## 1
Amino acid sequence: MPRTVDIGRVRNIGIMAHIDAGKTTTTERILFFAGVIHRMGEVHEGTAVMDYMEQERERGITITSAATTCFWRDYQINIIDTPGHVDFTAEVQRSLRVLDGAVALFDAVAGVEPQSETVWRQADEYNVPRIAYINKMDRMGADFKRVIEMMREQLAARPIALQMPIGSGDEFEGLIDIFRMKAFLFKDGQSGVETIEAEIPENLLKEASELRTELVEAAIENDDELMEQYLNGEEIGEDVLKSAIRQGVITNRFTAIFCGSSFKNKGVQLLLDAIVDYLPSPEDVGVIEGFDVEDESKVLKRMPLDDEPFSGLAFKILTDQFVGKLVFTRIYSGSLKSGDAVLNTISGKKERVNRLLKMHANRREEIQEAFAGDIVAIPGLRVTRTGDTLCDQKNPVIFEKIQFAEPVINQSIEARTLAEQDKLIEALIKLTEEDPTFRYRNDEESGQVIISGVGELHLEIIVDRLKREFGISTKAGKPQVAYRETITETVTHEETLERQVGAKTQFARVILELFPNERGKGFSFDNQTTAEIIPLQFVSAVEEGARESFGVGAVAGYPVIDVGVRLIGGSFDPANSNELAFKIASSLAIKEAIRKASPVVLEPAFKVEVTVPNDYLGDVVADLSSRRGKIEGISQRNILQVVTSTVPLSEMFGYVTQLRSITQGRGSYNMTFSHYEPAIVKASNGYF
Ligand code: GDP
């Protein structure tokens, strides 16, 4: 079956916004105008379609990245949901990786808010072309020009207006389309859906003309021929100008600005036009680079063409109530038919694609084939996890593996009844499949289940989901920083296991060397013996025993990281040695060796970037220092100062409130995991 929508008519977009800027409302209106929603629901009534999970409606934040397909003017728009909370930046990065363009949404009163800054910078990093939509123009205090100014100053963006509002607040009556130099007046009445084309009001003509000049000059600045035409006073044709503007947006030379009031249905259709007109198609984005499976330094290219070998990236896993596990996949090249077998290059396993679904806001559509540039949901995959590459078996490729945040906060949870304990584990398994930054484990000593995540809110939401989606009430302990342990010296240890088990003797002897590995390198194992000394199947048992023993450290029982193990000697006895004996010997050896190698506790340190006006700089730096923060640099970003530092996570609890109070609400910050470092003081249960 051939494709129904030409690749040039596909838009894979995300909407990036600070919480409360109106992302849910805008998405809902987009889907409504695109003909999907037949009954318009308001967010506060809790019928927003993009929100997968009940709790999101209550909290008013959108956490998961799902994808919804809709149509506008013969174009297929796939909206990939990007989460808005700072705790979920891993999800934000993951969605930025698979979309081709984005709408950056701002509240016309609040302007550029801290989270918009963080996401904006990530979009810069991934080179995502953007248009901006200044929402809530109907609010008292809405200020279009101020938001543009803030974008320039705080985001170092180059905003170019393609619209300007006619009035604001209660008097937000229409828009001026700077490209066509026409006014669009909103028709009176409740819905405000209709817009009437009109001439630009006399009093705004001068300002509109100035913006038009700015637009034209920005659009053609790189095109000598057009520039010459323009300087000679010749008119530039509408189509030529439009494609020049499109080029400017796609190549990230500037950000085209639009505005409206989604809540009042004003400007949303024009925003849909802008998405189609100015944001790139997968074809515009062009070649996607991946790596060779055998050799990660070798770059492989994939073109967004249907007759290329199939390749795609699994970017989100969700458990659907009816269909079960769904793997949302972005197809970069080739096509995928239901019934195809594909290769998962991360796990090295084959997966069969039995069904393909396209997710619309209110229905699932079963499709037979999907093509380059599409986003599909695949049910029934066995091994695929978030971030994995799926591809043609004969043409393996790996797309850049997404780096996920380390889980640095632990919390103990218990099901309220014994009967629910098994259900709890089942639910936790599902949640780890969906979310690579979430982990759980059984703590053998306390018999508790420990969940780990990237932030306090992350775990709070997990506990909430357990209740709502899985019907399991749990008792949760206090969130704790996830400490680790490591060793600081190189030691050698010899261990001989010789014991009587029933009528048989078990024998194994190993000599292991333990040494500190570079921070972040994790566990490594190196066998320096020969098969005559220790046969290979016993070597694997030694490695397994070692790996398991690093789960519990010698100082306070935290997992041990960044240690290298060398198997340098030992012996076996053909009659009395087996794998179990070697595993136990290795395990005993490691425990003893760790104790001898001057173990220390490590704590997670975060890179904290604080942005403040100059007046508060001194106080902010002093406060960070009192939190054991190391100041790494202070730089100027437009009118603001940016302080970069690393601070132990345990010192960052309550920072939001503190920063707000020392800067009178003018400071903002973001933090990302940096590394583990030796702990000096442990906040919650004692000192080291
Ligand atoms: P999100 O957190 O970005 O998804 O924001 P929501 O769409 O949930 O909107 C947050 C609040 O702002 C809700 O109470 C909306 O009704 C309100 N809101 C959204 N868009 C507009 C708008 O254009 N004008 C006004 N006045 N309020 C809006």
## 2
Amino acid sequence: MRKKVIAGNWKMNMLPNEAMAFIEALTPMVKDTPNEVILCVPYVDLFYSLLTSQNTNIKIGAQNMHWEEKGAYTGEVSGKMLKSIGVEYVIIGHSERRQYFAETDETVNKKIKAALANELKPIACVGETLEQREAGKAIEVITEQTKLALQDLTKEQISNIMIAYEPIWAIGTGKTATSEDANNAIKSIRQEIEKLYDTQTAESIILLYGGSVKAENSKELFTTSDIDGGLVGGASLKVEEFSKIVNFQ
Ligand code: PEP
């Protein structure tokens, strides 16, 4: 059986002192959960968050990285740097990075490869725009993004990747995909992985849903056949709300 994973994406929010206070408050609220708990925090919060989460079941991730190990890339942070301080996870190809920072399926693929080479676990994001959905192209778009994100990766490498299906129209808008729509989209990603690899790989990969997940809709979404948890933006900034999502059962 696949485990459930709840990952928070703080985006560009939380100062280090706020991050530490949040993790201290969250720790007792989630200590008994069977689910994996991840917080993807801004770069400046990483070290403080890692220290505060030591000896807890809360794992820490970054929200982006560069694909090169080092060099003349002013303002960038590499996978090797993230690994060196103990980061375990990294979000790759979030739609906000694709939209505002010109990330493409090609850079997403390069970053996933670099993350894996540095023993980081990527949470790769895919999702369609409202126009693509209304044109009936949602499944085509997300299966193509999945294929390109995973290009040249072996099935052994796939076991260290999670994919988050995040319909762009549902991110930060308060609009959530129905659990049936979200489950169907995620099922189509699983089927694509079965085509690219095999049934066992498809059955074991963790696939998350993201897009206005809240305490009140988390149980319905996360108890469908194919959704293995969530990537949570806005609601991951409120400790009680986030703890309820983690403890959705
Ligand atoms: C996200 O940032 O990945 C996200 C899903 O945001 P929200 O939950 O706020 O829609």
## 3
Amino acid sequence: MRTINLRGKTALILGVANKRSLAWAIAEALGEAGCRLAMTYQGVRLQKNVSELASKHKNALVMALDVTSEEQVDGVFATVKSRFGRLDYLIHSIAFARRAELEGEFRKTTREGWRIALDISAYSLVALSNRAARLMTEGGSIISLTFQASQRVFPNYNVMGAAKAALEYNTRQLAYELGPKNIRVNTISAGPVPTLSARGISGFSGMAAHHRKKSPLQRNIEPREVGDTALFLCSDLGSGITGATIYVDAGYNIIGL
Ligand code: NAD
């Protein structure tokens, strides 16, 4: 039983593809705490799935959003404004790189592959935070999802490591700029979880097994643990935390050998 109460609060959550998505674990945690949810899906093929999942939460709003479209981004925030009036939380749980860029040699990353990965996975946080901040009239919390490939080499993450490094920098700069409005900006660095996107990374299951073996907790994390951390960061319990990269990785990041 969760004791954090988010009744009267509103959240916009990007990145639910299916029930294994980390965004869905966050939606569940915030929704169970009484928060009103707006969720976006990318592409018509995900619409049915996401609408079905969202129907579990009372009055949830479901909208299409591809972050590469400025028009769609503006449309989503206009709808949130007209339906919710204001916004308290923004959850950015999206990333994309072309398959060819997630295997082989990093130095062969194409200009277009780099542009696509950094645009969708990192620039989008800047564009969305700018719009969200205008609706966060009573302060707020912005959370994204990152991975330790931002700091260390994980073979095959390649351009996604560069995108996560940019995302973590964005988190600090946005935290600095939005702090005076009492808007906190943090990123959760999750350990490997077998989601749709993760399975697209060459050698993912071997890496998850390595994490399991080497982590202090000697296991992989559960999506629920990411949801709970996001809930804590949204709530008043996280009121003193901003600009941080918070590891939810069973402790793997502290290990040297
Ligand atoms: P997922 O496949 O369930 O979610 C990724 C989401 O990104 C999907 O919903 C997809 O539709 C969305 N997306 C991709 N391109 C988009 C675009 N142009 N516009 C809007 N949405 C778009 O996988 P996930 O693992 O839940 O990924 C969520 C976040 O968690 C990502 O940022 C990912 O890098 C991060 N993360 C995942 C892991 C892991 O092991 N699964 C670990 C650390 C961080």
